[in-house]
Design a protein that fits this description.
The chain is of the alpha+beta class. It contains seven helices and nine strands. It is globular, with a radius of gyration of 18 Å.
């Protein structure tokens, strides 16, 4: 599922949702560690650097559009979210006139087993995103992160790449913190934000009409403190996670 990239001009939540659907529908480039020999990983990684793969393909090279570049870890298991039930319950919630809050959306997610979430890393195209993606992809290969994906290069020079690193349960704060630690241990030190997949399934992106922030944690790595660590803010409560 597409996560909103940063644009020069702000888009509406509906625009972000349309981009999301388009990326999900287009072919993905996937390395599945459950099926593909580990020896093939590094050549695959080199051949599919996000700064070199075009989102909308290369007509001269005969290459079509690419939605995502993704790595699935050796222990990545199937998920059975009830997305149809979630969306039906969402429509009922909207029709009821009840206030839409993080808690009401969390309740829907729990009821329909839509619990996955991801830390998001937004980066400009070029060497840095390739390096960050290499770090995350290796952590997935080693089983330290369940799965991850990165957006390919956009024709719009202002657009950023987004790397998504996943965990199984956004409602388990300890698990979310462990994923942050795995990302930091992999070598990524830039700012991160965390988004539950339930927001993506419901089309809730930035600039939505409910004025909800679709990311529920923010992580900034402190290079000054000893030992170095992340400072993570729960954006729902506005409190630091300790």
């Amino acid at each position: 599922m597409e996560e909103e990239e940063e644009h020069a001009e702000p888009l509406s939540a509906e625009d972000y949702a349309a981009e999301a659907l388009a990326a999900d529908m287009d072919p993905w480039i996937i390395f599945d560690a459950r099926k593909t020999p580990r020896a093939e990983f590094y050549s695959w990684l080199e051949s599919n650097r996000p700064s070199q793969v075009s989102r909308f393909g290369d007509e001269e090279g005969g290459l079509g559009p690419v939605g995502w570049i993704s790595v699935l870890g050796p222990d990545h298991g199937p998920e059975y979210p009830d997305v149809t039930g979630l969306q039906e319950s969402w429509e009922k919630l909207l029709a009821s006139g009840r206030q839409v809050t993080f808690q009401t959306i969390k309740e829907l997610a729990l009821n329909h087993n839509v619990l996955t979430g991801k830390w998001l890393i937004h980066m400009d195209t070029g060497f840095k995103v390739d390096r960050a993606w290499e770090c995350i992809a290796k952590a997935v290969l080693d089983g330290k992160i369940s799965s991850a994906k990165v957006s390919p290069r956009d024709a719009n020079s202002e657009a950023k790449h987004v790397i998504c690193a996943y965990n199984n349960n956004f409602a388990d704060e300890e698990q979310v913190m462990q994923l942050d630690a795995a990302i930091r241990a992999a070598g990524v030190k830039c700012s991160l934000s965390y988004k539950p997949d339930v927001y993506t399934y419901l089309g809730i992106y930035r600039n939505n009409k409910w004025k909800l922030c679709p990311t529920i944690y923010e992580s900034k790595f402190d290079l000054e403190c000893v030992p170095r660590r992340s400072h993570i803010i729960n954006k729902v409560t506005n409190l630091e996670v300790t």
